[in-house]
Amino acid sequence: MGGDSRLSDAPPARLLKADDHELVAGVIAGQRRALAKAITLIESSRADHQTRANGLLRALLPHTGKALRIGISGVPGVGKSTFIEALGLLLITQGKRVAVLAVDPSSTRSGGSILGDKTRMERLSQRDAAFIRPSPSSGALGGVTEKTREALLVCEAAGFDVVIVETVGVGQSETAVAGMTDVFVLLQLPNAGDDLQAIKKGIVELADIVVFNKADIDPLAAATAMAQMRAAISLLRPTSANWQPPVLKVSAAKNEGIAEFWQSIEAHRAALAATGELAKKRQHQNLDWMWQMIDSGLQSRFRQHPGVRAALPQLMDAVEAGAVTPAAAALQLLGCLSHDYETPNYD
Ligand code: GDP
C-alpha cells in the first residue's frame, strides 16, 4: 500500500519492518484495526514486540499531541462508565472522536480487569467515532501506566480529539493518571464518607474538577456534599494559579449536567492554554515519564544482567547471614552493570 508518502514527515524509523510501515499508516489514517493492533504490540512483553513498538511510537510521535487528555477517577460504583458513556455520546454529537483507556491497578494483581468488563459502555463502544480499550492486565502498576501512556499517544496519532483515561480510586494510579493528562476529574458520590476517603488519600489535591454523580438520588445530600467539598478545596493548594477547581453535580444515568461539565473542561483548557501552562505541564509530564522509564529500565537491566543473576543468590544468602553488609553487596552487584559501559567520568 502507498503508506510511505504519508510518512514522509516522520523521522527515520530504522527499526520499522515493512509490515509496521503499514501499521503506522493505518494508525495515522484512523483505522480501528491498526490502532488495536498497535496497542496490542505495545502491551506485549515480548522483547521483539517491544522493539517493534518502540519503532512504531517513534514514527507516530510527530502525529501526537493534538488531543485533549482527560483523566477520570472514582471508586467502583460511582458511575464512571455511565458518565464516560454519556460524555462520549455528547462529544460524538459535536463531531468529535473519543478514545477511552483504563488504568486499573486491580488487574495487575488478579489478571482480570474490573474496568475491562466488556459490557461497560456498550452504547459508546458501538459507535465508529469511539474506541474503548480496557486496562492491560499484566505487569506491575508502573508497567501498566507506561503502556497506557503509549496507548494514549497512539490514539492521538489516530486522530482522536479527546482521550479519556479512567482509573479506580486507590491513590497510586490517580497520581499516574493525573501525570499523563491535561485535566484530572474526580468523580464523587454525594455522601460524606466518600469525600473523606478522597481527601485522606490525597486524591482531591490532584483534581482540577470535582463532580458529584447520582445527584438525582438525593439532591439535598448532593448540595451538602458539594458545599463541604468546596470548603475542603479552598484549604488546598490549587492545581494551578490560573484555575480554581469547580465542584459540579451531574446525573450520568439521567444525562443531566454533562454539557455543563464539558464547558468546565473547555474553560480549564482555555485558562491553561492562554498562559502557556498547558504546554509546560506536558513538558514536565514528558520529563517525569523519561525518568520513570530510566528508573524502570535500569531496574530490569540490572535484574537481567548475567553477572547479577550469577552473583545474586550467594550474596543474598551472605547478607541474610550477616556475613556481608547490605551496602557492600549492593555495590558489588551494581558494579556488574558498570563493566558494560565505558568508564564513566563523574567529575
Ligand atoms: P463505575 O463502577 O464507576 O464504572 O460505575 P457504573 O457506571 O458501572 O455505575 C454503577 C451503578 O450506578 C450502575 O448501576 C449505574 O446505573 C448507576 N448510576 C450511574 N450513574 C448514576 C446516576 O447518575 N444516578 C443513579 N441513580 N444511578 C447511577
Can you characterise this structure?
This protein is of the alpha/beta class and 347 residues long. It has 3 domains: 58 residues, Single alpha-helices involved in coiled-coils or other helix-helix interfaces, CATH 1.20.5.170; 210 residues, P-loop containing nucleotide triphosphate hydrolases (Rossmann fold); 54 residues, Signal transduction histidine kinase, dimerisation/phosphotransfer (DHp) domain (Helix Hairpins, Orthogonal Bundle), CATH 1.10.287.130. It contains 14 helices and 7 strands. It has a 7-stranded parallel sheet, with helices on both faces. Helix 10 links the parallel strand 6 and strand 7. Helix 1 crosses helix 3, helix 2 runs antiparallel to helix 7 and helix 13 runs antiparallel to helix 14. 39% of the residues are buried. The N terminus is likely disordered. Guanosine-5'-diphosphate binds next to helix 4.
Short structural summary:
With 347 residues, the protein is an alpha/beta fold. It folds into three domains: 5-62, Single alpha-helices involved in coiled-coils or other helix-helix interfaces, CATH 1.20.5.170; 65-274, Rossmann fold (3-Layer(aba) Sandwich), CATH 3.40.50; 285-338, Orthogonal Bundle (Helix Hairpins). It contains 14 helices and seven strands.
Report the total helices.
14
What's the Cα radius of gyration?
23 Å
Domain module count? 3
Order of helical and strand elements: HHHEHEHHEHEHEHEHEHHHH
Measured by DSSP, the beta-strand proportion falls in: 5-15%
Shape category: globular
CATH first level of the largest domain: which class?
A: Alpha Beta
User: Which fold name corresponds to the CATH topology of the largest domain?
Assistant: Rossmann fold
Low-confidence stretches: 1-13
CATH architecture of the largest domain: 3-Layer(aba) Sandwich
